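REQUEST FORM: STRUCTURE PREDICTION
Request ID: SP-0412
Submitted by: Lab K.M.
Chain count: 1
Length (residues): 254
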Amino acid sequence: MSTFVDTPVTCPHCRSVTERTIATSINGPRIPEVVGDIRDGTFQVFTCPACHQEHEVDEPMAFIDFDQRRWVTMYPAVWEASWRGWEAEAERNYRDTMIVYAAAVVAELREGLWRRTVFGLDALREKLAIAEHGLDDVAIEALKLDLMRGMPELAVTPRARPRFVEADAEALRFRAVRDGVEGDLERPGGVSVLVVERGRYDAVLEDAWGDARAQLGAGSYVDIGRILFDGGDADALAELLAEARVAAVGDPLR
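STATUS: Completed
RESULT:
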C-alpha cells in the first residue's frame, strides 16, 4: 500500500512554508507512474510559490516492491552523517513490520527481500537503477571509491561520490562531480559522465576484493558513506583496495 500525507514543507531557498502532499511509503508495482518520476528526477520536486525556485523533498519513506523482492528505506540526505543510527532504525522498523507484528502470511513476502537504507532521492534512484541492471551494489561502491582515489578530478568526499546511471555489455556510466558541485569536469565544480569499462566492474567481483566488499556491505546502508563519514576508516579501506591489486581497464573518462 502506498501512503501520502499532507505536511508543511519549508523552502530551502527562502524558508517560506507550504503544505505539500508527501509520500511516506510507495508500493512500486501499484503506482508505476510514480516510480517513473523517481527514475527521471521529477518526484517530489516543487516550485516555491514565494520565491519561484524549485526544490526536492526527501522526507523519510519506504519504497517496497514485492514483485522484484525490494525493500528500500529512505531518509533525508542531510541525515546521512548519522547513518549508523538510521540504519539501525530501518532494521527495527522492518522487523516490527515484517516479523514481530506481521501476520503469518507475511512470512512468504519477506522471503529473499533485498533490503537497503539510503539517504535522499538521488541515492534511491541510484539503488533502483543498480538493481534494475542486475548489478551488485556492494561491488559498485567499492569501484566508486577506487575511482575516486585514482582520479585527481574527484575529491574523496561524500558530496563528490559518483552516482551510477546505466550500464550495457561494454561499460558502466556514472554521473561524476568535481568538488561535490555539478558543472564541467574541466573546471572546479564540474559534472560529467564517467564511463568505466565493464571489465573493471567485473574485476571487483574477484575474491581479492572480498575484504573491501565485506566492509561496504556490512549492513543495509551499502554506500561508501560508511567510509567517508566518521563511521569508517578511509585509510584502512584504501589499503584493502590497494591489496586487491586490480588494474584499471582503459581510461574511465571520455
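NOTES: The CA atoms of residues 171 and 197 lie 4 Å apart.
Reviewed by: T.R.
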